[in-house]
Amino acid sequence: VLKYQDQLVGNVAMAFLHDGRPPIIRDATYTPKESTAVSLPEGIDLNQTLLKTLGAPNVCSKEWIIRQYDHEVQGGSVVKPLVG
Questions:
Q1: Are 3 and 9 in contact (CB under 8 A)?
Q2: What residue spans define the domains of the chain?
Q3: How far is residue 20's CA from residue 1's CA, in Å, rounded to a whole number?
């Protein structure tokens, strides 16, 4: 029952509201892409490349800076830093 200024403007059965609309069934298909072999350049030390990448400021751990600042501002954090 829906009223506006004491006048009945709508009357819909609860069963219709919850069960009246049929579920939407969507068909989906998956087409796997062909895998291609990766060609790596010769003469590059991949260990050094990995260490350089992991040492970059935008990739490396931020723990050192998180530990320096108050992350409990008014205790409003749901998940604390470094918790997961």
A1: yes
A2: 45-71
A3: 16
Q: Residue 75 — φ and ψ, nearest 5°?
A: 60, 25
Q: What is the pLDDT of residues 63-75, one digit of tens each?
A: 777 777 766 666 6
pTM: 0.33
Residue-wise pLDDT tens digits, 40-71? 888 889 899 999 998 888 887 877 777 777 66
Are 33 and 23 in contact, with CB atoms under 8 Å apart? no
User: In 23-61, which positions are buried (b, 16+ CB within 10 angstroms) versus exposed (e)?
Assistant: eeeeeeeeeeeeeeeeeeeeeeeeeeeeeeeeeeeeeee
